[in-house]
Amino acid sequence: MPIEVENLSYTYMPESTQSVAALQGINLRIADGEFVGIMGRTGSGKSTLIQLLAGLLTPTRGRVLLDGRDIAAKDYDRSILRRTVGIVFQYPEYQLFETTVAKDVAFGLKHSGLNHVEVTSRVRKALEIMGFDYDKIHNQSPLALSGGEKRRVAIAGVLAVQPKILIFDEPVAGLDPQGRYSFMQLTARLHQGGTTIIMVSHNTDVLSEYTERLVVLEHGQIALEGLTKDVFMQLPTHDHLPVAMSTAQEIAYMLAARGMNLPQGIITYDDLLFALKAKLGGGEEAP
Amino acid sequence: MKQPLTGRFIPGDSPVHALDARAKLICLILLLAAVVSAGTVYGYGLILAVISVILLVAELPLHLAVGPAWRMWPFLSVIFIMNALFFTATDPLWSWWIFHISLAGVQQGIHVVTNVALIMIISNALTLTTAPLEITKALASLIKPLRLIGIPTDDVAMIISVAIRFVPTLLEEADMIKKAQIARGARFESKRLTEKAKSYLPLIVPIFIAAFRRADELALAMEARGYHGAGRRTPQRPAPLRLPDYAALMVCMTVSILQLALLR
Ligand SMILES: Nc1ncnc2c1ncn2[C@@H]1O[C@H](COP(=O)(O)OP(=O)(O)OP(=O)(O)O)[C@@H](O)[C@H]1O
Ligand SMILES: [Mg+2]
Q: Residue B142 sits in which domain range?
């Protein structure tokens, strides 16, 4: 189910003299199974864009098409949208409310028409994906868990619906390196399983490692868009953009400036490692 | 603060927006007094002129400024009819049973309805152009004299302003939580009352948790910064009124004094 965005604009408080034109004339197409990153400085309209994609805001102008159908249309069946598109906000742990973890994770399946056995198996699966032991956790109160555990339970609640398109707003902000790594591994697995992933992040390292395509927003418009590698390669020529290079890319630039002749297009740590190995002639594995 | 608070305050940069909230509050009282004491066509003309100027200067779109009063038309009609039908006058134009329509009655009806509508428009102009936090601060500073009769006005002001301070934050958080639950497939429409109440649990529980979390954080932060009740606080000197504030006050004062003069 591809998502298409046509000439999309959104204005907050349109009646005020201080109305905010958060998005202006966005055109975008996200195909099935893609992993798309969205970056841009704070206030550039990233969160607004993904809320429009999930049908949580209604466009001021333009359309969002899911599988070719306008999701804001009067006769559109919203339950299709809810089943297809899952969204994880920055602090998903704040949405927990049920008395047990299992009930909370099952909340999104209430209107799915699945029977009790199917619901339980989905809940078990979602919790296991998020690294929990179902039998240990399912009867606990979600409100008594630690912050990190709450967050994973909340994400499990979104995964239980098995959405084909998953949207994350700043998912790795506030996670420690280990948490960030395991979260990204999980996302990569979902992506390999065919789920479309759309991820808003300020973390260029994460975006450079995992995404296939990047959209850079600036003042509510698309400033740069393309394959991740191409976008990162173009960044140095767009120094008006507030988007940093990835760390590996920066190291490569520093080494090049000190006279080391490295190939073009080093974006990820793997690229850098590969290039350095070739350069230094060492065949040994890195420790 | 992202969300316009009550859905009513509309940020702007007009001279009316920029006025000190204390001045605006006193102006409101003066203008309300003017409306109540207005008795002649000239008086109402004057008030209408003042309102038009305020709305123009504040750059308020007409449907926002007058809309709320306009939407009250069923209520206003009832007021009019009651006044017109039941006003006892000596020279009715038409009488039947207990109903008497007289010129004086109709006039009285128009009078009352106009007053109510004008009061709504004027108050609305205040809330449209003034942030709620500003209004409470102004209220707090205007109730200061009540300290003389033993009311702990500092504490009252503190409580009001903390409460008001958290409304936008909580609204923003509530908005996020609502969106998250809708995205998870929550449905807030149901016909049976118990079902309906239950369907709001996914909103109410997280919002309460958020409120308590905020309150905890605030209490800790206030304690860490050495807050021990408002009593021992060094009084904060409020910013003095500026020239435009005094000008606005003068205008409103003149309008209400003129009303009294026009009565004769
Ligand atoms: N509820 C709202 N009411 C009014 N203005 C808003 C609201 N939400 C966002 N805005 C404004 O719209 C613009 C885009 O906001 P948005 O939240 O989409 O930015 P963002 O790119 O997600 O920023 P960040 O990186 O800080 O999350 C900003 O100027 C913001 O102030
Ligand atoms: Mg955001």
A: 132-233
